[in-house]
């Protein structure tokens, strides 16, 4: 495939983290000749994060494959309505439907499911308990890096958590979904349910919620499959 015909890949991070976590995936995609954009969501509100994503989509040449991790799935579900977006890729992400938010999707966890160690809000923002961050979010990430991620958390706004999708782009655009089978933030059965509902092409990979950090090869492989399909 000629390089000029490859779509641009835009990577969207989730809550508590920033775009730097995509570095491993970015490097693999660049090595394969893709143009890659990384969104730095402010994670203040869904509207702000969608706006930040649309700025990067606007800069892209040609069609865009929009990739979201975790809460970033809600962002791409809304931002994916942009006409430049051709495909969606969910990485252990919330593929929300119309009117759904992360808050509505996590409010009734099934019995026995792992519950994210989210601390009570401070001034409208959320953090994960640092002592429990590695076990819940990044169990297969090198311990020193997981500790760094815990200590460099980005405050996640309640307006982002509660931001509801107005029109899910997966209803009109093809999607792919990587299920992280060892995820302790979004239970794997919930990931399977959302993937099936979206009609996504599903790939399973061993990995924690931070599968995009710990297993960049598996994540890049799903993205490339989508981009070249």
Task: Quickly describe the structure.
With 229 residues, this protein is of the alpha/beta class. Helix content is 37%, strand content 16%.
Features:
single chain, 229 residues, alpha/beta, Rossmann fold, 6-stranded parallel beta sheet, two-stranded antiparallel ribbon, 8 strands, 37% helix, globular
CATH domain topology: Rossmann fold
Number of helices: 10
Structural class: alpha/beta
Q: Give me the CATH superfamily.
A: Alpha/Beta hydrolase fold, catalytic domain
Overall radius of gyration: 16 Å
What does this molecule look like?
It is a single chain. By secondary structure, the protein is an alpha/beta fold. The protein has one domain (3-228): Rossmann fold, CATH 3.40.50. It is built from ten helices and eight strands. The protein has helices spanning 23-31, 46-59, 72-79, 102-106, 130-137, 143-151, 158-161, 188-197, 211-214, 216-228, and strands spanning 8-12, 36-39, 64-69, 85-91, 125-126, 156-157, 175-180, 201-205. The strands form two sheets. It has a six-stranded parallel β-sheet with strand order 2-1-3-4-7-8, with helices on both faces. It has a two-stranded antiparallel sheet with strand order 5-6. α1 links the parallel β1 and β2. It is globular and about 45 Å long. It starts with 7 loop residues before the first strand and ends with a helix. It comes from Bradyrhizobium rifense. Residues 9-221 form the AB hydrolase-1 domain. Keywords: Hydrolase. Pfam families: Abhydrolase_6.
